[in-house]
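Practice problem: predict the structure.
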Amino acid sequence: MTQDSITLIGRYVDSYKEYFEVLRNDRILSMVVNPLLATHGCDDMKALMGRAKGDEFITNAKHLLTKNIKKFTQGMEAETASTTEESAPSEDDDIGDDFLSPEERLEKSRLSARVKRKIIHTSGLADRIHAAVEAFFDQNFDPEVVLKEQYMRMRKDCSSVDWARVKKNETLYISSLFDCLEWWMHCRKEHKLVFLVVPPVLACPSANGLQECIFSACTWFDNPLRQSLSDKRFEMAVLLAVNEALLKCNVPTEEEAKEIVARAVAKYDSSLVLDFGAESE
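Answer:
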């Protein structure tokens, strides 16, 4: 066996461990911001891993979510604490109120109320984050009710849903139907602190398939005739070809990809003729 083969096998082993044995923090975080996986998914983890390891996994997941929420609230907490220290009234402020105008007394009262609210907010922020994480994991998430409400909001037909599997709490099947982004857009006010972590996590694509499709589409433009296209026209033609496939909501075959690219090129060939004709006139 050559050294290259040994190296390749080693990479396969590492990849297997990465995907099936060791869960990275980014994957755990993407799991726990999904309400379905943070509730029923965690129950499945206990069943698969055993209660002890399952509880340990959930504890670590909660710690990871708490840590990421603190990243987003750290600046807020520091700013609040700084404002509180600078704005806090001194003990001497109570002396001489009789000499203040009504407007000054009103402003002083408002300042004192704002400072008190900020002190409460700063001192209890860690407790609020902890309570928010616990409430998110302990929420009553009924898949059947949630899916029906979500389909109603989205005006989708739910006749194709196998409700028997939903009632059995088949997490994998339910997750194929559940729209996590739509749920957060509707329920984010109920979990405001947890929602701070959601946008950057959900914005990450689960795979780079779209990028690979774009690269594949680009190869059909890479020939001596197409290389004369300007950068702007090249980018527009590629986007036009890729978007046509996306709008159909399926992955085109190689022959279909060729046809899509050919149509995109033909459109720009005709536009070049029109542009040339306009310049001649």
